[in-house]
Amino acid sequence: MSKVITSRSEDYSQWYNDIVRKANLADHSAVRGCMVIKPYGFGIWENMKSQLDKMFKETGHTNAYFPLFIPKSFLSKEAEHVEGFAKECAVVTHHRLMNDPVSGGVVVDPAARLEEELIVRPTSETIIWNTYRDWINSYRDLPLLINQWANVVRWEMRTRLFLRTAEFLWQEGHTAHATSEEAIQETLTILDLYARFAEEYMAMPVIKGVKSANERFAGAVDTYTIEGLMQDGKALQAGTSHFLGQNFAKAFDVKFLNENQKQEYVWATSWGVSTRLMGGLIMTHSDDQGLVVPPRLAQTQVVIVPIPKPGTEIDEAAEKIMKALKAKGISVKYDTDAKKRPGFKFAEHEMHGIPVRIGIGKRDLENGQVEIARRDTGEKSSHNLESVADHIENLLEEIQNNLFNRALKFRDEHITRVDTFEEFKSILESKGGFLSAHWDGTTETEVKIKELTKATLRCIPLDAEAEEGKCILTGKPSGKRVLFAKAY
Amino acid sequence: MSKVITSRSEDYSQWYNDIVRKANLADHSAVRGCMVIKPYGFGIWENMKSQLDKMFKETGHTNAYFPLFIPKSFLSKEAEHVEGFAKECAVVTHHRLMNDPVSGGVVVDPAARLEEELIVRPTSETIIWNTYRDWINSYRDLPLLINQWANVVRWEMRTRLFLRTAEFLWQEGHTAHATSEEAIQETLTILDLYARFAEEYMAMPVIKGVKSANERFAGAVDTYTIEGLMQDGKALQAGTSHFLGQNFAKAFDVKFLNENQKQEYVWATSWGVSTRLMGGLIMTHSDDQGLVVPPRLAQTQVVIVPIPKPGTEIDEAAEKIMKALKAKGISVKYDTDAKKRPGFKFAEHEMHGIPVRIGIGKRDLENGQVEIARRDTGEKSSHNLESVADHIENLLEEIQNNLFNRALKFRDEHITRVDTFEEFKSILESKGGFLSAHWDGTTETEVKIKELTKATLRCIPLDAEAEEGKCILTGKPSGKRVLFAKAY
Fold it and tell me: pTM value?
């Protein structure tokens, strides 16, 4: 912990990279664009995953697993889908290497060329709907509510750890329904679930909305999104839920016999969140001392540091506290490393974002006290040894709420209503955040705004009120405000 | 459930395929050699995974994630490893597709050829040890005890669902140690953990042993294995744990400063089990009525069937039983589908291997009784409604034990000591199972035996007793018996 990280004000982007590296979350790998998720970072992702998985199962979904590879021809079956996904992808063309007598290494065996190239899945609609054709015959087989936890690959030219990597981990839900209404309901159920997870577990406030046609998932009828706001004023698309209509059912000929004995195409949804959430988590809460992890997702919620080092009395007090905390289901570690000084340990645990630190010193102990430090505010206080577990149980809740409220306040202060294009550009550059503005509803205008300002249309909020207005760029009439922002 | 499955005696291989398909465990996919794991099968795999993950964590391991792709040159760095893994693999050569004006589909963009081809990981030693070089500097960084849950690809020409597929799911542990002794100890700790999991959860007895040089993992100093025995008398390698010596540390230049301030190469282990275990589970216990799942891995441990159909009194009794079972942590479902007759449901739940079925009929209820059927033995008995939950709690334990003991008895009856090659061949063809025989210790003899009989040397059991004898093939001296068998 000798090196301090770059501050946010100095270089936000470098600050982000420093946190990811120095809090042991992830690393670049030898393969361009692919990351290594380190044990500490993976532990946080595992907590996210296990909570999301629980929520999926509570809403009737089950997990399954579909192939990593997609035959090239599948991608062409849905016209828009191929435009969105077939372009930058990993293509498997051969299935064998052979010794190279020249180099002494191995080379691709030209005789082992595949008849049809395979694409490493960028998303699995095609392979899954090709499978659903065999699984769905009648309305009795519906709904089919399936989720998959998997790795996917999209060949990105410019990558950033967690935020944009060639390979990433995600979950992708793929559901099949008998009616359009039921599929739309599923899309919205999942959108709510994602928003609940983001706010209650990640303590990251999000805006629920629908994407414009231009930002829609390739192959969807409607794409719903949750959008967060990072500390630098940029938006982050944190999860999407798509109503796919009958597009994939038609592309893969998936029909069912309805209750009236008629053949109909099946209605579909798909939805996903990814390791990108780790980026959102970091950028929503962390500070110039390092990572800040909300208690509900922390691997270690409490760390105990002996001051200046372990010893019989301090060990006994630590054991007692640990026992009481564990009985409450709170995860706690006792940092007994005798080679590191307390100050060094403090910095290290701050860097890792452990929500609560307990310092136990001899003098404090004589007074029946321990020192408690909050990671979110940096506040320290003394507390009675006897009731410390109850106190910490409440404190963890308080920290979770404080992180959410702090982020919510920041987010709300960074939604600015603008009515002219001058104002739009000026606020975007000076303050950033979401710009709530009127838009004429055309892709042409949306694209022009992006070209001129780099701001993208994040979403049309679900709770947007009807309001007569004029498009900030074209002056054409608009019935409600939408949100623009620069985004990750 | 109209079609009955093929019986084991009629066609064992077809029986296996029928179970996998009709119990909704897995399916072939549109991609050659890649399977779709269906929700019911995936639920059993999830139970296995979660128990194994718990056991890994209890023994000090943490999870992480490494890239799917391995640069081609990495595979050549460890001489034996490349021989074992570089040959049949999925090779990514391009990163873009483009529209094909001729076909209207998409074709590989020749301009997007990768400078160096990427291999879809067949196993991750190389990419992980290339990463460990940055993570390990001093003895203080050791041991490093890391596991990864991932998909891997090995281009298999002849595939069977779960047992041998091009893509499969697995966990791979990769640990780094300061001494050879500690690494060997880790290898054996994991071997024990695997054996414990196989026996206590899968109810599958296994023999722990070490592989001959010929069957060793490519790049290992020693490969330890757990070997199960399937009902057709063939062995199944169910998990392996490798002591890798300093081979990968040398190939990737991973050194550490030891306590005496000297640079040393790091010692390594790797170990894994895969979705192949699902094949082992099926073939150890299932019968001609379908799948049999040990209670500890069953998604649904108890199913309640109303006879002939739901109704107020029966529903109330079912609710009461469910509440009592759930309070004991037992998973239970009430099959209220009014469209299916009880007999049909019975067959369906038998096919899925649900350990216990409770039938509730009106007449039984009048006598305060329900009918309980065990999946393992098919036995039915009446039981008092009041104490049914306690009874079932014990019954599930009894079924778990019975499955293990039954499989153990079968396995032990199928280990035959043979002293001549004639006997070896005759028992192999008539009875199958493990042949405990003397072997002269050479690869040459081992390979010849395989050529002549198709039996492979499964392992040298860890508990093999010293015994003077003569090799069954060459008559040369041997100090202990080893186990041969035909194998999956």
Answer: 0.96
**Which domains occur in chain B, in start order?**
12-66+120-285 (3.30.930.10), 302-395 (3.40.50.800), 415-485 (3.30.110.30)
Q: With contact defined as beta carbons under 8 Å apart, do B403 and B203 qualify? A: yes
- DSSP state letters, A136-170: --BGGG--EEEEEEEEEE---SS-BTTTB-SEEEE
User: What are the backbone dihedrals phi and psi of residue B391, each rounded to the nearest 5 degrees, phi first?
Assistant: -60, -45
From A398's Cα to the closest Cα of chain B, the distance in A is 29
Mode of pairing for the β-strands spanning B356-361 and B369-374: antiparallel
B97, A75: Cβ pair inside 8 Å?
Answer: yes
3-state secondary structure of B290: strand
Task: Give yes or no for A120 touching B (CB within 8 A).
Answer: yes
Contacts of B169 in chain A (CB under 8 A): 65
Averaged pLDDT in 10-residue chunks for chain A of 488 residues:
79 97 96 96 98 98 98 87 82 93 86 96 97 97 98 92 97 98 98 98 98 95 98 98 97 97 98 98 97 97 95 95 97 94 96 98 93 97 95 98 98 98 98 98 98 98 96 97 98
Query: How, if at all, do strands A113-120 and A69-71 pair?
Result: antiparallel
8 Å CB contact of B42 and A63 = yes
Write the single-letter amino acid at A193: L
B169-214 pLDDT, tens digit per residue, is: 999 999 999 999 999 999 999 999 999 999 999 999 999 999 999 9
Nearest alpha carbon to residue B285 among B215, B332, B344, B355 = B355
Return the closest-CA partner of residue A343 out of A289, A279, A298, A275: A289
**How is residue B266 annotated by DSSP?**
P
The CA-atom distances, in angstroms, between A65 and each of A125, A271, A308, A438, B48 are: 13, 15, 51, 43, 15
Q: At what angle do helices A443-453 and A421-430 cross, to 10 degrees?
A: 50
Q: Which of B272, B275, B345, B274 is nearest to B303 (CA)?
A: B345
Of A68, A73, A105, which is closest to B153 when you measure between CB atoms?
A68
- Chain B: residue nearest A130 by CA? B30
Residue A267's H or E segment, with its range, is: strand A267-274
CA distances from A322 to A59, A301, A333, A335 (A): 35, 11, 8, 12
Residue (of A463, A473, A400, A487) closest to A438 by Cα position: A473
Residue A154: closest C-alpha in chain B: B95
Q: Which helix (H) or strand (E) holds B126?
A: helix B125-135
A 310-349 near B (Cβ less than 8 A): none
* CA neighbor of A280 nearest in space, from A339, A366, A194: A194
Quick check: A155 and B98 CB within 8 A? no
Whether omega before A143 lies within 30 degrees of 0, making that bond cis, reads: yes
Close Cβ partners of B230 (under 8 Å, ≥ 6 residues apart): B236, B280, B283, B284, B488
Decide: A42 and B150 in contact? Cβ < 8 Å.
Answer: no
Q: Is B323 exposed, middle or buried (0-12, 13-18, 19+ CB in 10 A)?
A: exposed
Residues 6 or more apart whose CB falls under 8 angstroms from that of B141 comprise B135, B256
Q: What is the sign, positive or negative, of the torsion defined by CA atoms of B159, B455, B225, B122?
A: negative
